Amino acid sequence: MQKREREEQEFSIRNYFVPLTTSKAITWIILIGLLVFANMLFNEFLWDDIAYIINNPQIHTLNIQFLIDSFRGSLFNSGGEYRPITAIYFMLLYSVFGNSSFYYHILQVCLHITNSILVFVLFKKFFSNKLSFFLSLIFLIHPIQIEAVSYIASSGNPLFFLFGITAVLLSIKDHVSNRNFLVIFSLLLLSTLTRETGVLFIFLILFYRLLFHKKQIRVFIIYSLIISFIYLFLRFVVGGAFLTKLTLVSIAKLSLLGRIITIPAIFYYYIKTFFLPLSLSVDQEWIVQHINSSIFYFPLLIDTLFLISICLLGWYVFKKQKNQLSLFIFFLSWFLMGIALHLQIFPLDFTVSDRWFYFPMVGLLGIVAILIQSISKQYKKLQTLGYVGAVIIICLLSIRTIIRNTDWQNQLTLFSHDISLQDNFDSENNLGSAYTQIGNSKLALIHYKKSVALLPNDTNLFNLGYTYEQLGDIQNAIKYYKEVLANRNSHSTFTLYAFQALGFIYTNSDPKTAKQYALNGLYEYPNDGSLYAILAISEYRLHEPTDALLSAEKAKSFLPNEETNTLYLLILDNKPLHFTDSF
Hints:
The protein is mostly helical. It has 28 helices and no strands. Among the domains are: 245-378, no CATH class; 423-572, Tetratricopeptide repeat domain (Serine Threonine Protein Phosphatase 5, Tetratricopeptide repeat).
């Protein structure tokens, strides 16, 4: 009796997987995705989340004007980037969820799970259900995906991929109707306007048609040219988003030859992290400065062996499975296109970034699928061992992802962990900001000093000056505020902050100097209400009441709040001024 009950129980559990239907696979993808990423749902906003969402007034009001302005100049269309759809996405989310990070996280997980389901649907068109399910699970839970899923400011990665992969699935039919053409290329435009990498889906679809269905290739080319023209017009004519030099990025400072020397290490990083995702960190700014065995020749050797292995697989497919050759070329092209875009031929804002592997990973998984399929045909007796190995791989990757998600709880936990693996000026500055947010100025000071020692810039110099001011060391505060102004390369928010800070400090001790800083600041930032308020205070204390009243009126006009209104009334009534905090 017990034996029969045990057999029935085993049979019922087996029914959840066998036979592995599409609906069962999709159900498991959803459940496993929610399980693996559940511990990141309550993580806080951090890093660029603060700039793009919390401190970005552009997205805080839902209106038609911002929808129009999203295609013009904005925070999302700067630094060589042009991402109006991402701006609209965050505006819509903020209008509903405000500053509650949970809803941003849950939506981002849902985007990623949806993409994983679509990857399964794609693979299912070429491979068995079981193999497609296994590969889509790797795409779902691989630790290299954490940066694209757990980092809210990186929502554009799963979003652009969603548009693009949907377009691919609609385009792989033998015959595409006129209505579907419009849908496909609308999705491709949305993908490209969400993230520049979306342009690769256009080339991918064209390449697929050349390999498998040439009948409508001319129509695909015409539509591709139209979409490309629309994108270029919006980017350069409407948005004015031209390529810019990234002055604070290590890889961008190198010559083309220097970036080429770094390519083997970059390629090696992605391959190593895919097969052995142990050391994961963000904000990677390293470069290869010297050609030696550890950072150049060893990565080059591994890269060469990896590429030779892929070539051997291609040769085997050519000789033994010619019907799979086009498919092999398709996925190889997918992988190489995605990697090539991030090899720093054109410098990007980091040396490597895990979220940049979101697109090429599908191509690599397609190559792995062809390899597994070839092995399974030759060694059918190893099937059971293969199932056991697949379960172990999924479990290990899931555990690693769950552990890494704990690092993303907040800015303090993330950068405290990551600077132990690789350190740079930006990570030190971000960790200092994390300590500033919790009110620990002494620890913040330590990390700001390290950041300035590694690479002084307007951001960390201002943060160091501000921290000294918080600690009551006004002389050092003035020193670093002045360094912000002395070392600035262009107008920036922190340059403005330095003018404001210096002006306000001097309003009490030296109103003449305060007035000069306010005037210098207003020359560069003519509509800043805080500088007008500082100018009003300094003029009032220099016994220039008429000028002070005019400046206070402008302060109230450009920065309408209780402080500027009080300032105006005090000057109007000729009363003493007592301001302890800057405007």
